[in-house]
Write a structure and sequence with these properties.
Radius of gyration: 17 Å
Structural class: mainly alpha
CATH architecture of one domain: Orthogonal Bundle
CATH superfamily of one domain: Winged helix-like DNA-binding domain superfamily/Winged helix DNA-binding domain
Number of strands: 3
Distance between the termini: 25 Å
CATH topology of one domain: Arc Repressor Mutant, subunit A
Helix content: 55-70%
Shape: globular
Number of helices: 6
Strand content: 5-15%
CATH class of one domain: Mainly Alpha
């Protein structure tokens, strides 16, 4: 097997290149990391999330989510409240500062995406996104097999 032709490797390399490129911008312009950006973006769309829900949405492990939540809370970008249904769980929300930051960053993230996809036609983008969805579903099925 030639590693450079192995699809999981190719996808990992592509993901790392994209993450490094966009992470540089987030870090330099806003002082946040990719995990912090992901959590802020999720909370901007789905407020009142628990760490368990954020782990599922972000596909980050529990330890990374826990660290990220502490950092974001320390920066005053999120707040936490005890969950009414389970006193052991916490629900997280964006603060006013967190909402302002994510509202500033989102358009720039979309501009990055536009540049990234500029070499593809609209039809190719549609097909590419369809295949990503199919591969995500298949990966989920495979990883749940016993």
């Amino acid at each position: 097997m030639e590693l450079s032709n192995f699809l999981p490797y190719q996808l990992s390399v592509l993901s790392n290149k994209i993450s490094r490129g966009i992470a540089k911008y987030y870090r330099e312009q806003h002082g946040i990391t990719i995990p912090e950006w992901r959590v802020l973006a999720i909370l901007s769309d789905k407020n009142h999330q628990t760490a368990k829900e954020l782990t599922a949405y972000s596909q980050m492990d529990k330890v990374k989510i826990s660290r990220t939540m502490k950092i974001l809370e320390g920066k005053g970008l999120i707040s936490e409240r005890t969950c009414k249904q389970d006193a052991r769980a916490r629900r997280y929300n964006l603060t006013i500062n967190g909402r302002e930051l994510i509202n500033e960053v989102k358009p720039k993230a979309l501009a990055f995406e536009t540049k990234l996809l500029a070499s593809l036609s609209k039809d190719e983008i549609t097909i590419f996104k369809k295949y990503i969805k199919i591969l995500n579903q298949q990966a989920e099925t495979i990883t749940q097999e016993k």
